[in-house]
Specification:
This protein is an alpha/beta fold and 617 residues long. Helices cover 25% and strands 26% of the residues. It contains 16 helices and 31 strands.
């Protein structure tokens, strides 16, 4: 921990149950003392997760907000130069997918930077399969670090055969540190792993890996997981022998990443394992916005007895690594050409906010569904269903380019159609709203119909009413009639839980790339002035047309950029009362990594809190 002067130093200490003590320092750092024992070994962990091809910083209306691999590199290099402790740099998966860099380079541009930052280990996320097995195989073969997933089973005929490791043992200062990886079991429906790759239950794989690593002499075991924070908590509670869980997949902001203190998501979480030992659970939100940073102290038996932090925000005033910046400029050239090709114009902001397209009708979701239905009408399509998780960002007012459409729809899916009975259409919608409370990507954006649902009802009985277009009117759906539904190729194959599509008749991939279909529709409709019209509502019956919901002014939700550090979440999570906050975490990071400059103008006005622990594609 860096030294600070007596004038600026103060600390507050509180008992937090079971003999543990929480100490919060004036610079925003903290220390959790779990046991008053002799320290035998200390280990510092830096970590990221859900990078999603965010090579450049996350930006808002005023420019960069935070993140970017160039500034991440600066922070990592300086931490490595400062610390005398053994250190590991880990990533918990989903390096692939999310920007035009992935569309252009299939993950290899991201790998170039990850290799240069000298990551020690990475887990495999579900999006690592978005371009199939061969693309992931090329990534692993070129990686300078092991890529792990202990619950992935690969056939000998697969391009991935022999490439995916279950675990690795890394020696630091004479200590053996065992690390194993886990990938969400839902990858088969969230991505495109293809034949020859299957996923076993994560908890069973974890038990096997702990036993194997202990037998190999590792007394300190890290689970590097891409299964979501809720599964991480179960892992901590049900599998003995793990010291630390570094997670991803749920894009969970923890501790100071949140704008308000939250007992439900501290950084770190301390959970008691079946053997009575503490397990530390951490995650670093998403997109390289923050660099997770935690230091663990162990006793002679390998039990965690002390935890120090906190995580560090990758601020825009941190000096970027110039070598990275030069390389990004080269990689960006073909993307800039693509981004600049005009398609049409938006007369209103088109709402693709993650929190909105996964819970309610939005004008962009309706526009995409309308475009799908319009394209497939000559094939007899009557209804359209698009998964909200396939819509990845918003489009602001003004010119619309090819690049923007590809960022909204980056997955390369094609249009597909299937004939379903009315009962099967209802089953599809029931699946779509079954996890709305967790903002799952399966939420349906629709065209050619209206439906209402009750989010408080049982997960298989939430759809209250469905009406379908009939000439110039709307009529209740007939459970026995047949309807031709246009969707995308991912959902037709059963993705996002839409297994009912695989039960339908006359399944056909129409071959039209969804992004191209939407581009054509925007060009024909420009200037686009899409609205919400009440096609999706909550309640016992379809509601009247709803007013247009204005999208958030930035394309992402930003829980805690620029807020002061609040240790309240630590105390609440550990069962103690609240104490006042320390000085701003932002100040600490600026002092360490950059010249002190004021925050960008308007930086705080674009922030909103997102849900905790939501499972996100």
């Amino acid at each position: 921990m860096e030294k600070i002067s007596r004038r600026t130093f103060f600390k507050r200490t509180a008992a937090v149950g079971a003999g543990a003590l929480l100490t919060v320092y004036a610079d925003g750092s903290y220390r959790i003392t779990l046991a008053q024992e002799q320290v035998a070994y200390r280990l510092r962990i830096l970590h990221t997760n859900d990078h999603h091809a965010r090579i450049e910083p996350v930006s808002g209306r005023e420019g960069p907000i935070h993140g970017g691999v160039s500034r991440r590199k600066t922070m990592i290099d300086r931490i490595r130069a400062e610390t005398t402790l053994p250190l590991l740099l880990l990533d918990a998966g989903d390096i692939f997918q999310g920007t035009l860099y992935f569309n252009q380079y299939n993950g290899m541009a991201d790998l170039e930077f990850y290799n240069a930052m000298s990551y020690d280990v990475a887990a495999i996320g579900n999006h690592e399969y978005d371009s199939g097995q061969s693309a992931l195989a090329s990534f692993i073969q070129a990686a300078s670090f092991p890529v792990l997933s202990a619950n992935t089973v690969v056939d000998a005929s697969s391009p991935l055969a022999g490439l995916i490791k279950s675990n690795v043992i890394i020696e630091r200062d004479g200590e053996k540190i065992g690390i194993f990886g886990l990938t969400t079991e839902t990858t088969a429906v969230l991505s495109n792993p293809g034949p020859g790759v299957t996923f076993t239950p994560a908890l069973e794989a974890a038990r096997e890996q702990v036993a194997a690593l202990q037998a190999a002499g590792a007394s300190k075991i890290i689970a590097l997981t891409h299964v979501g924070v809720n599964i991480d908590r179960r892992l901590a509670q049900e599998v003995a022998g793990i010291s630390l869980i570094v997670g991803g997949h749920s894009h969970t902001p923890m501790g100071p990443m949140l704008s308000e203190p939250s007992a439900s998501s501290p950084y770190p979480e301390v959970i008691t394992a079946p053997d009575g030992k503490p397990v530390i659970v951490i995650q670093a939100w998403e997109w390289g916005r923050w660099l997770g940073d935690v230091t663990l102290a162990f006793n002679a038996e390998g039990r965690v007895i002390d935890v120090q932090g906190p995580p560090l925000e990758v601020l825009p005033n941190i000096e970027p690594d110039q070598g990275f910046e030069n390389r990004i400029a080269v990689l960006r050239e073909p993307l800039d050409q693509l981004r600049s090709t005009p398609v049409g114009e938006a007369a209103v902001a088109l709402d693709g906010e993650r929190a909105n397209v996964r819970t309610q009708e939005t004008n962009l979701g309706s526009l995409i569904a309308d475009a799908m239905l319009d394209k497939a009408t000559p094939d007899g399509a009557q209804l359209a269903i698009m998964n909200g998780g396939g819509i990845r960002t918003s489009i602001p007012v003004g010119p619309i380019t090819v690049g923007q459409v590809l960022e909204v729809l980056p997955f390369g899916n094609t249009l597909a159609r299937v004939d379903l009975t009315g009962a099967q259409v209802k089953a599809a919608l029931e699946n779509g709203v079954s996890q709305v409370e967790t903002r799952a990507g399966r939420f349906p954006q629709v065209a050619g119909m209206r439906f209402s649902f009750d989010p408080t009802a049982a997960a298989d009985n939430r759809v209250a009413s469905i009406t379908v277009a009939s000439e110039d009117d709307l009529t209740p759906i007939d459970p026995n009639a047949t309807y031709r539904v246009v969707t995308n190729s991912f959902l037709l194959s059963g993705g996002d839980g839409y297994s009912v599509f695989q039960q339908g008749a006359n399944q056909l991939d129409l071959g039209f790339i969804l992004a191209d279909v939407v581009q054509e529709y925007i060009a024909a409709q420009s200037p686009v002035s899409a609205t919400t019209d009440g096609r999706i509502s909550q309640g016992a019956a379809a509601a009247a047309p709803a007013p247009v919901t204005a999208p958030a002014p930035t394309p992402v939700s930003l829980p805690a950029t620029g807020s002061s550090f609040h240790p309240l979440w630590l105390l609440a999570a550990l069962g103690a009362g609240a104490i006042s906050s320390g000085a701003a975490l932002r100040r600490r990071v600026r002092e360490r990594f950059a010249e002190p400059v004021p925050a960008p103008a308007g930086e705080r006005e674009d922030r909103e809190l997102v849900g905790i622990g939501e499972e996100r594609r």
